[in-house]
Amino acid sequence: MAKTLLLGNEAVARGLYEAGVRFVSAYPGTPSTEITETAVKFDEIYCEWAPNEKVAFEAAFGASLAGARSFCAMKHVGLNVASDPLYTASYIGSNAGLVCAVADDPGMHSSQNEQDSRRHAMASKVPMLEPCDSTECRDYAALAYEISEMFDTPVLLRLSTRISHSRSPVELHERKELALKDYEKNVTKNVMMPAMARIAHKKVEERLIKLKEYAETSGINRVEWGDRKLGIIAAGSSYAYAKEALGENASYLKLGMVNPLPVELIKDFASKVERLIVVEELDDIIESHCLKHGIKVEGKSLFPFEGEFSQSVIKKAVLGISPSYNELPHPVVGRPPMLCSGCPHRGLFYALRGLNLYVSGDIGCYSLGAQAPLSMLDSVLCMGASISGLHGFNTVRGSEQAKKSVAVIGDSTFIHSGITGLIDISYNQGLSTVIVLDNSITGMTGHQNNPANGLTIKGDPTAAVDLEALAKAIGFRRIRVVDPYDVAETKKTVMEELEAPEPSLIIARRPCALLKNVKHSAPLKVDRDKCVGCRQCLNVGCPALSRKDKKALIDPNQCLGCGICAYACKPGAIVKEG
Amino acid sequence: MAVKNILIVGVGGQGTLLASKIMGRVYLEQGFDVKVSEVHGMSQRGGSVVTYVRYGDKVWSPVIDKGEADIIISFEQLESARWLSYLKPGGVLISSTQKLDPAPVIMGQAEYPKDILDEILSLGIKVVSLPADELAEKAGSTRSANIVLLGASAKSQDIPKEVWLEAIKASVPPKTLEANLRAFELGFGA
């Protein structure tokens, strides 16, 4: 059968389809997002964007209990949010198969930390599979359902940026259509209160022993013999890098299941090779497991705990070989990502300039506001922490500090976990000013609809969260809406709300400039007679602006006419075309 | 066949992903194993972006390391300089002459380096340079510079032109097809 090039994420979605999955709930997060975006194209699968990963996991749990093979997806930090249901779902198990994909981001291409999700699998005592290419993404997604139902457990499917975002050939199979399994009320199994949970925990430990047996014998962990002078234990992307680097010059124990890990299989492999090396990105989990069982291996003495590996990393660490290449004899000026031209966030940040504020930041495109020339953010922690973090900051530093600080958070992040922070401020009589950057979309992950924009994952109209009414219901009395393209008005509003002796919510509302249905003004141009070359316009940090012959220049192909640079231009040299 | 490595580099938003997708399709149809590794998310916001395309009898790793690329296709001069070290000794750099100022240059903290491609040539590296942005405009769509560069790279590869044209037809929206086919021809002839 013909093969198709699929992203790892697309292949996972294909696996869900073929395994008869009916329910998918997810919150977007790079590098996991395209799983759900692909799954929604299959009419047989109900798909939704959930407000956050905890909700997505719980919804999938409910659907599994109801008898449908169910799925949720998230990035590594999303699993922290969903860890609460995960750890107890481990006790309850599954009715129809329940699988959660979690995509790690070694090298932090798009993340705020580099945590290793295998630790969640170990701590929650559930099996975790890790594919090494798109075909395995499809195969393991489907296999995860068999394991889930065979062992009565949720199953984690671990991906990483290079697996999720690499295309490789996949042979497509037919879907296996499955009837809903029966649901029977079973309080002992499904209601986790102390008396039942004590029984359930015992079962979890017994299950783990059976899963270890599966890891030893099922064939998901396999030995590939090459030269026996060198043995490599690896999974996922690390396995792919090792095969590329060492080829037939090593033997491999390729792990498809990374929790629980086999013992006898590793011992046997170790006894048949001269030198044994564990290749694993991030933490030393396989290595520690080997050491715990008295198996002599090398690992983190050769490899770092941080960053992405590659074939070169392995060649250098194992063989001591470095590549030769040409290089310019000087450094090349960097090109950091920046806010797009016409981005409404730029107007808001520019309005905050000069107010000398503490700005509590959050996760999204507007995290880029931390970078020069805007340099507006003081802190970024995790989803929603801008609001709750600001509340703590202002509480210990007093009411005068509250007049000199704001939180900035996007609409999707606000829905995800900003609402509870807002309640914290209101309930505990805080004074903080919170700004929601409402661009009507989940931006950074590539334009997903969300509960605040009134559109479902399929783009169908639905109920939209009314942010103003929500804030009012929470107890906020001062709620203002501004257009961030109107920098002067935005600045004035922020100053008024900072002075107010009570908490305020400002909604800076304008859709993302990249949305297809957004109309733009004509490009602006520089009146070179008026331009004094002061560079003030360049401080808005817009990719459409540059300098030529000591004067500002606007690229008409990039300019969307938002006018923020015109606001910054004191001589009034930036004008409309014509 | 030993694995061939093609690095596609540019600035987020220039269309590097579509170019790599079309290439992957072409090599798969030629019966090769293929891996194409893309960049999504944060780096796409006007930052430096790289896509790895690898094909051969069996491809294990999705990434290309320093000194491994047979061809670098670069959408922008400064990016040619940035990724140059990924070129295999004896490899070819196919570079657009387009220049896009990065943030430090826009803000006046750094100068855009002069005569980058000449400097690369002076290292003894084989460089094919073409004004992909201007040719794209000539083809009828400023957004088709990616297909111009694809055309330029196809010229040096041993795969029939029709295969490329078919892959473009299968990958671009119908209303942009004519401009993209013209863009390919302009790149192929450059």
In short:
The complex is a heterodimer of chains A (578) and B (190). With 578 residues, chain A is an alpha/beta fold.
Please provide a written account of the structure.
The complex is a heterodimer of chains A (578) and B (190). Chain A is of the alpha/beta class. In chain A, 36% of the residues lie in helices and 18% in strands. In chain A, strands 3-2-4-5-7-6-12 form a seven-stranded mixed sheet, with helices on both faces. Chain A starts with a strand and ends with a strand. Chain B has 190 residues and is α/β, with parallel strands linked by helices. Chain B has one domain (4-189): Pyruvate-ferredoxin Oxidoreductase, domain 3, CATH 3.40.920.10. In chain B, strands 2-3-1-4-5-6 form a six-stranded mixed sheet, with helices on both faces. The two termini of chain B are 29 Å apart. The mean pLDDT of chain B is 94. Classes of the chains: A alpha/beta (578), B alpha/beta (190). Chains A and B meet through strand 1, strand 8, helix 11 and strand 20 of A and helix 1, strand 2, helix 2, strand 5 and helix 3 of B.
Strand content of chain B: 15-25%
Integer tally of domains of chain A:
4
CATH class of chain B equals: Alpha Beta
Q: How many domain regions of chain B? A: 1
CATH superfamily of the largest domain in chain A: Thiamin diphosphate (ThDP)-binding fold, Pyr/PP domains
**So what's the CATH class of the largest domain in chain A?**
Alpha Beta
How does the helix and strand content of chain B classify structurally?
alpha/beta
Work out the strand percent of chain A: 15-25%
Overall morphology of chain B: globular
Q: What is the annotated CATH architecture of chain B?
A: 3-Layer(aba) Sandwich
Q: What is the number of E strands of chain B?
A: 6
Query: What value does the Rg of chain B take, in angstroms?
Result: 16 Å
Can you name the CATH architecture of the largest domain in chain A? 3-Layer(aba) Sandwich
Q: Identify low-pLDDT runs of chain A.
A: none
Characterize the overall form of chain A.
Answer: globular
